[in-house]
Amino acid sequence: MKIIKSRRRSEPIERQYKKRDNTLDFIAPFLIIFITFMAYPSIYSIIVSFTKYRAGKFSFAGLSNFRYIDRPHLQESNRKYFFHTDISGSDSNLSGSSTANFLNIRRIKALGLFRMFIFMPVLIFSCCSREIS
Asked: Measuring CA to CA, which residue among 104, 96, 103, 101 is closest to residue 124?
């Protein structure tokens, strides 16, 4: 029986190791920023929401911090907030995106300029309305 050798050589082990090492180099900055500015503050705020802070000391309070959720003025405020962020923001972004996509179909000179004039006011309005409410 004859053994047939492959013409292709496998990569050296050092090169394979470097390829795996590069992926961590690209992911590490994201992970550091995500953990520092997103994950840790989110988890810490959830933990703090169940505590009582008096004279520099934390003590466990349980659900007693959430006893004012059923107040009418808070419900009205939440309703307005969700209207402005979800419905109003989504509508304006959807209309701006669909108009920009429609402009892709037509062959128009200065297409980027038209997109900017149509989409930027929509984007600015939705960002400002979220900040105000």
From this structure: 96
